[in-house]
Amino acid sequence: RYGSVRRWVRALELVTADGEVVHLRRGAPTPPAEAEALRRFEEDVAPALREAAALVSRRFPRTRKNSSGYALDAWLATGDLLDIVIGAEGTLGFVTEIEWLLDPVPMERAGLRIRLRSLDDIVKVVAAVLASEPSAVELLDRTFLDLVRDGSDAGLAAAEAVLLVEIERSEPAALERAVAAAADSVRDIAAGVDTALSPAATERLWAVRHAASPILAGLPEERRSLQVIEDACVPVERMGDYIRAVRRAGTARGIPVVVFGHAGDGHVHVNLLPEVARPGWEADVSSLLDEITGTVARLGGTPSGEHGDGRLRAGLLRLIYGDEVVDLFARIKRAFDPRGIFAPGVIIPSADPPISRLKVGAHALPLPDDIARALRDIERKGGYGRCRLELA
Question: What pTM does this model have?
Fold first, then answer.
């Protein structure tokens, strides 16, 4: 319902690699004379992007989300430089201020839990549920349910997948009507539907979604949860194909996978659970990454729906977009950051293999014992807001 963050950013302040401060506002073009980076972009990059409009249209994924590369398609649609900077992962400058567009939060919230017999039913169920304008449609695949189920819920034990649906409205009566309509729309397709109208009942319905984190955090030292292929987004109608491909790729290499995600967007998260004490596990993870990236490209998807490319996925972008589009990415980077001082290796890759910087396994760079213990504690407890300086 709310979409990606791009539509909610009205303006931002950016410090460029030249040390100049730029203010970008949606619908209000910033004069190129305001900063050297803007001048370089307007003179060296913008004409090439306009000339490549047809290429961008052909090569960019037609998915509901895409946080991979620079958003050339969005810029061509709006002409707002804001759309290049949003999602740039810190590679084009340092964002010091953001102005947000806000909506009131609806007062009433309820939920549904829809159990599926087959992955083939996902597309039909999601299409039916989206007619009720839900705020969230979350997928829990069988691999996720196998991790968290304790045998107390026979419905979950028999499900191939579960969809958790959240619906928001301003009035209780409107909320009840929307929940009833969503439930009725899928009864003939789903294996079962549970509804929750009170906050407490909704929390109980969603409890299974939050059960995996402590389990993954408590894995033994020799088996770790890695987010390597964890953020792909494919057209909603290909989501079942993608999940099956991930399952097969993991099984073929003896690597357990845990699959969940945002079904309304075709956006799938995957946690790999390799045994990091086993010789050759890095090669298996690397080949799995290559295979699934090829699958994403074949299905018309993107390797990142929301988390970005980072250094891990930067080297995969030529497979998704092709050389000409990635060369345009590089021209944008040079216009904003000629010396390459911002986030080197992110989006525009370095020469290192994608998983060369993993912090686990026998080949990981050694850390002082106290810092290694602190990082593992953060991994287990989710203390991701702590300043890195506190670890020293």
Answer: 0.86
Tell me whether strands 267-272 and 108-116 are parallel, antiparallel or unpaired: unpaired
Q: How far apart are CA 24 and CA 44, in angstroms?
A: 19
CATH number, residue 257 = 3.30.70.2740
**Tell me, what CATH number does 165's domain have?**
3.30.70.2190
Residue after which a domain boundary falls, among 164, 186, 213 = 213
The Cα–Cα gap between 66 and 51 comes to 22
Q: For the chain, what is the domain count?
A: 4
Residue 339, amino acid:
R
Residue ranges of E strands in the chain: 9-15, 21-25, 94-100, 108-116, 136-141, 161-169, 192-196, 257-262, 267-272
Token couple for 272 = 């790999």
Domain extent, residue 116, equals 108-213
Residue from 104, 128, 102 nearest 114 by CA: 128
Are 203 and 280 within one domain?
Answer: no
Give the integer Cα–Cα distance in Å for 157 and 53: 49
**One domain, residues 203 and 265:** no
| pLDDT tens figures, 117-168 | 999 999 999 999 999 999 999 999 999 998 887 655 666 778 999 999 999 9
Predicted pLDDT at 53: 98
Distance CA 228, CA 236 (A): 21
- Taking CA atoms, 203 is separated from 106, 217, 286, 389, in Å, by 17, 22, 38, 36
In a shared domain, residues 331 and 350 = yes
